[in-house]
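Aim 2, interim progress: modelling of the adenosine-5'-diphosphate-bound target.
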Amino acid sequence: MVRSILTINSGSSSIKFSVYGAGPDPERLLSGKLERIGLPEGRFSAESGQGDVLVSKELSLPDHGGALKELFGWLASRPEDRGMGAVGHRVVHGGSKYTVPQRVDKTLLNTIRELTPFAAEHLPHEIKAIEAVSSAFPGLPQIACFDTSFHRTMSEAATTFAIPAEFRAEGVVRYGFHGLSYEYIMEELSRLEPARSKGRTIIAHLGNGCSMAAVNEARCVDTTMGFTPLGGLVMSTRTGELDPGIIVYLLKTRGYAPDELNVLLNRKSGLLGISGASSDMADLLREEAASPSAALAIEVFCYQARKYIGALSAALGGLDTIIFTAGIGENSPEIRARLTKGLGFLGVELDVEKNKKNGPVISRGPVEVMVMKTNEELMIARHAWRVLSPS
Ligand code: ADP
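Predicted structure of the complex, ligand included:
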């Protein structure tokens, strides 16, 4: 009997995991992180569903395979592991073929391998995690949950880049990401305010990665990220929107190799690039009074995000709800206030006191502005359960 589901969210140097009880609305039994994989001073920590520390230690985690072996060894000693019936994975890209969560088989794994050039920063780690589970638990069902799925309802006009059609034919289109977070937020909204969930909504997922999605009638209309998670909003270390002419300029004047350009755009830009000091918004807010470059990084972040709220409101033909989520969106009244400043013409006006308390509703104008905690892991567990137990 399936009693529990393991969720795995693999990043470049970390793996977040959770164990949920099986069922349509799974309960979290434990969760944790393997951090600093491939770096000195690796860390393994986990806590119970009630927040009690179950493990917290430093250890060497040379690669993703080794980190998962450590996790599986530890899980085998836990009561939550008994009856583990499935593993759900976050997979950043499903290409045009995979638009809903799927059980992993050879064909799916091969397709994701072929998609690696589309998401070279993320997919290799996710593939390794799937392979590690296959070899540790042969035959255990694995469910791939794609960050691109949520955006499959976007129109051809919203997904087409203005480059020659041959590139579109090979899949160079807007896909959009953070889909598991958006799905979770929309499920929460429809539970809390069913009528509102059918209206025109902008969800702002502002974490290390940042994006916005415009949703109408519970269907995604447009999103700020594009072919890869590099486009759109300014992020912790990613550029977001960039004049493509800059890339031509850099290639011509610096002669960068593709990998160097990739590191520059993905890991050295964004808040870190502008400030020259930190990729972390909380750090920048602490430093801005003394550091003009930290202040500029925050200003550019808020200005660009405000501009995108305008653009997505136009795509929706008006606006009923804005929802802030993820690290910055959930925790920073300061950023939410600066980012929405001057949007009174759209009907967006924050209530200062409610904003300070981080929600749930922080507005007093006609557009309802909300703060919601996202939960991508729970969304993965729900998907895994739904794929295994179709109604
Ligand atoms: P990830 O995208 O890696 O999951 P998070 O969603 O945890 O990251 O977001 C991390 C970001 O949230 C960091 O820039 C961090 O500084 C920011 N953040 C968290 N708490 C606060 C806060 N109270 N004020 C401002 N920024 C915050």
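Residues 193-376 form a domain with the Nucleotidyltransferase; domain 5 fold (CATH 3.30.420.40). Residues 292-316 form the longest helix (25 residues).
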